[in-house]
Structures are given as structure tokens and as C-alpha cells.
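hey all, quick one before standup. I had two proteins in the batch that finished overnight and I want to keep them in one place so we stop losing track of which output belongs to which input. First protein below, input sequence then C-alpha cells straight from the run.
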Amino acid sequence: MPFARFTQGCFKALALACACTGAALAQLAPPFDENSLRTYVSQQVASSNGEGVTRFDVKLGIVEAQPSWALCRRTEPFTPAGARFWGRSSLGVRCVDGATWSVLLPVTVTIWGHGIVAANPLLAGAVLMPQDLRDQEIELTREAGTLVRDVSWLTGRTLTRAVNAGQTLRPDMVRTTSVVQAGDAVRLRLSGPGFTIAATGQALNNAGAGESVRVKTELGKIVTGTARDGRQVDLAF
């Protein structure tokens, strides 16, 4: 037999074998119900993510078929130990009727929700005002760290770094704006039923509104109170 004809015959046989193998693997697909798997992941996402989530998308990957799948008549999904359905993750599927195998399916969960972003470019040191902030839907699974979802929480705080318009804001990007600084002369106020006592002192630390501040009085005594706007410190009665 001519070598060319022999080679051609080998290639045809190899192609036929590959086709048969592919068909066989297709028959080995387990009884995965894609809709039920997606529903399972969606339920887990909904239960583990509370307020702030507006919508999410679940995409299931595929794995190579295994001969043991043919023995399985029914499967059920499960969450692998330590797994979190956030971004790229894994979904467990195990056979519960006919075999004892389990497999991990790749799954990608994209989640959107509300967050506060900068309405315009802001410099480090800027004291945030409501007009500087905007509530916007963002892709939460692309963000690192905790986001802020309350404009009032950010209002009055000072940026520790410059941000671009549309950039999401996190708690570690701001600090409380000091209403009292160490060395400031402050007014002390002690109020009770039917009386108010006022005095002066010197602040020993920086403090934002509502934060604790230590003050040295004119008599040299150290007291602790609550910082207020206008370099005022309220003492507890």
C-alpha cells in the first residue's frame, strides 16, 4: 500500500476515534440541572448579602466529563468549605443517587449595589460636603474593602487622599475632622438639672465632634469630656 494512502487512512481512523470519544463523553454528562444550580447560588448570594445589593449575575463554568458520571441518576449542589459566592468561586455538586462522586464547578458571581462616590475630583485634606458626594450603583465584586453607603456618615469628614470623580469611597479614605486640636484653649461646660457651670482649659489631644478629649483645667486638673463645635467640651454630670 502506498505510504500516502496508508497515512491518509490512519488520519481518518484517528479522526473517527476522536469523534467517537467526544460523543461518548457527551453521553457521560451528569444530571446537572443548570437552572437549579443557578437558583441555588442565587439563594446563597441573596441570603449572605444584605442591604445595598441591587442585582447580581451568576455564570456557571464547565468541567471535563468523567466515566463515573454515567452511573449517577441525581445530583445536588453544595457550598464547598470556605467558599464564598463572590467573584470567581466554586460550586460543589455531588451525586446522591447511583454513585458517590462529587465535583467542583467554576462559578462567577457578579454583584452590583449602592455605594457613595465622589461627585467631582477632590484633593487630600478636603472636608466633604453633600454636594461632593453621590449615591451610585457600582459593581461591588470589583471593589476591595468596605464601602460607604451613607452620605451623612461622610459629610464633615476629611479626605486623607485625593480622589477622582466617580471613585468609590471607603472608611479608610477619610478621618474625622478635628473640632478641637491639642493645645487649643477650650470652654468647658457642665450642665445638670437647673444649672450650668462654665470654665476654661487646654485640650491635650485632637478630637472630632462627639469624640472624647482630655482637657487640663486652669487649676491643673485633667478632665475628660466630649468635643463639640466651637472648641467647646461637654463634661458628664
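OK second protein, same deal, sequence then C-alpha cells:
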Amino acid sequence: MTYHYTDCGLDNVYLENGYTRHETPYGEGMAFDDIDGLHRAIGTALVNSPRPLSGAELRFLRLEMGLSQRELGAALGMEEQAVRRWEKARSSPFPGPADRLVRILYREFVDEHGPVRDLVDRLSAWNHETGAVIITLREDPASGWSLAA
């Protein structure tokens, strides 16, 4: 008998095993053998799915990565309100480029903070000022061009 696992915030997750039913003073309770592994498996299934992620799935992945809506928005170059709207529309897909980047971020999160996550964290922390960037370069005959000190 499968168990409809809705505690993760998703409506489409069912478990064949890895859980135990028990009685509590408040009614039937559930215990899960490896909740972290279960959530990692759910996240991996979501990012490997060929269909667009829904708002509920975005929220699941964001929470698994330990990001606030503001932090995820900054990583995507979006306002916090955009992430909030996407998550609120639980069953609707959100924009393609953001969908792809969230999948990459989650894969990096599962694989222990790789170079993509580091780059996105750096980009989201930058103060996005307007105006031209002044780049001063110096040529060294032995090593070539580099940023001047």
C-alpha cells in the first residue's frame, strides 16, 4: 500500500516503503526512515523531470536549499515578489530561464556547493549599479594582458 506524502508540500509524491505507521495519543502518526534522503530523492526527481517546474515544486527546492524568497530572487536576478508570485501559483510553471537556473542550483546544492552555486552567490551579492565600468589593463611582455593594480 502506498502512502501519499503531502508533508513535503507537494501533491504528487507517493511512498512505497521507508515509513512506519504508529498510533499516537492524537491519532495515527508516520515515521520516516531517512527524511533527508527522501527529500533529496524528491528534489532530484523534480530537477530531472522534462516538464517545467511548478510553483509548489519551486518552493520545495528553495526550502531544501535553505534559501529565502529574497535570496533566490537575488540569485536569479529577480525581485523577491517574482519568486513569491511563482510559488503562490502552485500548479503553474514559471519562466524557462529561471526554471533552468533553479535546477542547476539544486544540482550544485546536492553535490556540495560547486562552482555554479559560488558564481550565483557572488552575482546575487553584487550591488547592481548603473553606468560604465572602467577597466584598466596592463601588458606584461612575459605574461600578457591583465588587470592593472
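Flagging for whoever picks this up: Residues 34-147 form one domain. The chain has one domain: 34-147.
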